[in-house]
Amino acid sequence: xxxxxxxxTDEANIRKLGEKIFKRxxxxxxxxxxxxxxxxxxxxxxxxxxxxxxxxxxxxNTVAFIISNLASFYFNQKAVFTNNVDHDHSTWHKIIVFFxxxxxxxxxDTLIMxxxxxxxxLNALFVKIIDQILVGIFNYLTTRSVFQKQEHTMIExxxxxxxxxxxxxxxxxxxK
Length: 176
Fold this sequence. Notes:
Layout: H1 2-24, H2 26-52, H3 57-80, H4 91-119, H5 124-147, H6 154-175
């Protein structure tokens, strides 16, 4: 009987820990789901334009980029970043900043596609999948800054941590 109670308690603690981890990193998990959908849209659009309709790599990649990023903006605005939301800026401001970051990611996106297809002569689908994984990481980091309210700058956060460490050391010295 004691063993069964222990197992139930352990399972409950594991469940609570899992819920805490999911809640703490909710945006990452949800972004991965919707990021996968946006990457799938990008990949399908690229393959259709490049392989089936025989558009050049640059044109197919750019059109796929536009289509998938319109979807991505919508996903991020409505489903991904729903807590700690930046209400200080308008939707138009967010669109401009979002696409500015995304245009920056279009550069390595296009370079990866050109090198993979034109120079290395790899399979288009394979190169696009690798491309979407690498660009997706960059996109998460920049997208988070568009939709989430930034309470403090990086320098302010560092100063706060230094102050907290000083206070902690002062308390430790006074307790001795």
